[in-house]
Amino acid sequence: MIEIQGLVKRFNDATILDGIDLTIEQGEIIVVIGPSGTGKSTLLRCVNFLEQPNAGRIRIGDLDVDVARASKKEILALRRRTAFVFQNYALFANKTALENVAEGLIVVNGWKKARAHARARELLARVGLGDKVDAYPASLSGGQQQRVGIARAMAAQAEVILFDEPTSSLDPEWVEEVLGVMKQLARERQTMLVVTHEMSFARDVADRVIFMSDGRIVEQGPPSQLFSAPEDERTRSFLRKVLATQEAL
Amino acid sequence: MNALDVDYMLGLMPILLGYLPLTLQMAAAGMVLALILACLMAVVRVLAIPGLNAFTLLFISFFRGTPLLVQLFLFYYGLPQLLSVLTQINGITATIMGLTLHFSAYMAESIRAAIVGVDRSQTDAALSIGMTRGQTMRRIVLPQATRVAVPTLMNYFIDMIKATSLAFTLGVTELMGATQKEAAGSFLYFEAFISVALIYWGVVELLAWLQRRLETRLNRAYQR
Predict the structure, then answer these.
(1) Which DSSP letter does residue A68 get?
(2) N or C end: fewer C-beta atoms under 10 angstroms in chain B?
(3) In angstroms, what separates the C-alpha of A216 from chain B's closest C-alpha?
(4) Domain ABC transporter spans what residues (chain A) (predicted)?
(5) Are B223 and A104 in contact (CB < 8 Å)?
């Protein structure tokens, strides 16, 4: 179980996260939606400590971290219990697909190379890239790169995988294959916290949808409830705009 | 105008080539030491280590801001007057010292630029899977920075090989010094200096060829 309490993040004078409380059950799939610039990505980056939050607590299993006073060791431990899928894939440009997935196993988990490579092959096969193990990122399509990114996150065996708009940089033709891999992970009950604008994914896959605005969680609930009967005016207005454009496609 | 004395040149070439190893040894030693020093300074600059950062900036400013020849004279003729331990310093050592300090100042800046130029997302990704800062630097950032830095560093190495010719002003009989002596003996200045020019040119072309091969290898991961 993951528990986030009173998470605050400020950049200079601007408050990006204004006290986020969020509990994620093991195996739960949570989708975070909301207007641009409301702190959705910052929330994920703070949980992974890619940004240092200013205040709050993050608890993952038996690891309980006061973020304002987190030691280097705690930050490292927290990162090792979370995995991240980036909007721009962020694959290691100097490494093959196989090496991208195996890197963490070798360097962080101290696995022998042969064992790590075998595991990486297995994971790449699971995301449908069994024939691309030796390809470098530059020679892969956006969809393929992002699937490698997901395999790399899976390799970490983290308690939760954080997805930061995983399909936003993709050409439309590659979106489905990435969402397909995510749906498969969801069926396996991998705990996921997903920031996305793909409302159909939220509706079909999420256990819970969270609507964020201005650094706060405005409302949350099962997708059926949040999409059909949103309570807050901000949620209604956002959904009207987004659903209108997505249905027009 | 007299005809070019080709026979003299053909006889001179092997003599001059005998001094090439010393030239290359000074350049190689200077390059290795300059690379080490430049990497240290680049890391100091990237991490903005207090104190050391300011010292590095001053160092770079001085060694980029003054001519190499002045620096060589300073080490060879000047410093021994100041510090008696240095009275033993020979021309070869002074040259290697000068080349190291002079070129490390330039190289530090290009290495720093290459490190800073590696996309932030690469660091984020490495940290996100639980790698430490040191592991991220060693395994992800530096290999990618190397690819960017190699062309400029090779340029400095080429420059350094040619700059070893200044050692003759410190009395070292290297390639240039030997040519000078031969020319003074034969009075065939044009033949002597065109011969030595061809030798430098050949060495540099060989290096440029090696550089192209190295770059092809380093770019392998980036082919579409």
Answers:
(1) G
(2) N
(3) 24
(4) 2-239
(5) no
